[in-house]
Amino acid sequence: MGATGLLMEYEDMFPFTGELKVVNAKNGYSKEDVKTILRLANESGLYVIPLVQTFGHLEFVLKHKEFRHLREVDKFPQAVCPTRNGTFSLVQELIAQTMELHPEAKYLHIGADEVFHIGRCNVCSRIGMKLGPGFLGVQAAKHQIFLAYVSQVLQHIRRTYPAVKPIMWDDMFRTMSAREIETGLGELTQYVEPMIWSYFSDWRHHLPQYGDLYKDVFPNIWGATAFKGSSGETAQIPNIKTQAMIHTSWISSLRENGHKMKNFRGIALTGWSRFDHFNPLCELFPVALPSLAVSMQILQDNEMNLEGVQEAAKNLNCQPDRPATLAFLEFDPNLDEFNNCSFPGTEVYRSVHAVMDLLVRRIEPHLKELESNFPVYQLHELYVQASRLDEHLRWITRHEKILANFMEEIKAAFKLVFDEYTLNEWIAANVVPVWTKLEAWKVVLTNTSLVEEWSSRPLNIPPFSVPIALPIGVTDTTTRLSHSSKVVPYKNNFPEQTTVPSGV
């Protein structure tokens, strides 16, 4: 598809050893897995750039009690404190173990983006007090602390791995002046290569200060777009219109201001799997492959055109006539037409599309209709129009069966690509909440259907205390039934084969 390299952020999936072994995910890669990835990348003509977080986004390490003392803010395991004893040795070890398994690496990405907690500990905050009162002093301190720590990391890499060029995210530089950066990094500005990440559809956001901030500071610059993992923390299918606009706007940005860059190395197409370590999974890689193919083609062609999209479809083994026009950006932003393609992970692509279509277009709108037609405060009094209850109950039963069948397809498809933990997490995040609501409504509507006589208005509603939850299995509802029938208790009847284990 035109890629030349692979940027790999392993995080807790890397097979760390020694004192770092505690940070490993239980379903992480083995050393042999990493070697296989590197071999396959080499066979595909891709050089691999490992990414090791060195400042922020270190939740996967700092969440553990063994490394809690290195947090900048004790409550938040987001960033290390650069002044703590042990911080730099931790970062050195993260880098050392990663580079040991990447002996051929020519670049090392050190992360350093979104360091939200900086200058907050007692030692770091005193630096701000020395630089001046108020906001300006605090900002100057943050800049100074950041640049001093990054300089330490860069100097270590240059000494230890002289043949390796470091890359880092640029966003922490954006509030600084060119003079601040040059003063803080010194001659290291000629060594490190910033990667400007921007996922906006407006090209003016892509090059900080229209390219002027970095033009006389760094000789080498990278860019970073996104083919997935940028449109929403819980998004499960990339919106191709949004992703296409990100890439076409980057092209516009480079046309307008690219000449200010001494040497623009290239663009990385990022595909985040989580917005941060504690977030649920967003778009899975197989589901985003068509987005990657189209995005790659846009960058190669320097524009969005039908021929390029059809070339992307050809690379995915799609039918030759798909898509026939660029109008698919409007009427098919989720690339449903690519269901007829055949690429690695197609089964996951199709099954996720089928489930999300059922959830988003059919079940969730119906749940909203139920909430509208049967307000919670009336349900607590079993005071609803009974004429459509059976209809709604049949609808719920029918769609639970459809969803259960789709879960069988999901299970079979995921087994081809993912482990059981990924399957269980995806179902827990995307399906179980909806299934639980369906089951809850089934119980409520069944209870309500037993009522044959109703009391006079007004309803018994406590002032300023409107119920906020469905009355599932509420014992006192039995006293308001005209029947002797018992309230149906709620239980999770999700199909056993897709039940999410406790603890997920």
TrEMBL record:
Domain of life: Eukaryota
EC number: 3.2.1.52
Entry's Gene Ontology BP terms: carbohydrate metabolic process
Molecular-function annotations in GO: beta-N-acetylhexosaminidase activity
CDD domains, A to Z: GH20_GcnA-like (cd06565)
Organism: Hypsibius exemplaris (Freshwater tardigrade)
Catalytic activity: Hydrolysis of terminal non-reducing N-acetyl-D-hexosamine residues in N-acetyl-beta-D-hexosaminides
UniProt record similarity statement: Belongs to the glycosyl hydrolase 20 family.
Domain Glycoside hydrolase family 20 catalytic: 26-177
Enzyme category, top tier: hydrolase
UniProt-listed SUPFAM superfamilies: (Trans)glycosidases
The entry's keywords: Hydrolase
Name under which the protein is recorded: beta-N-acetylhexosaminidase
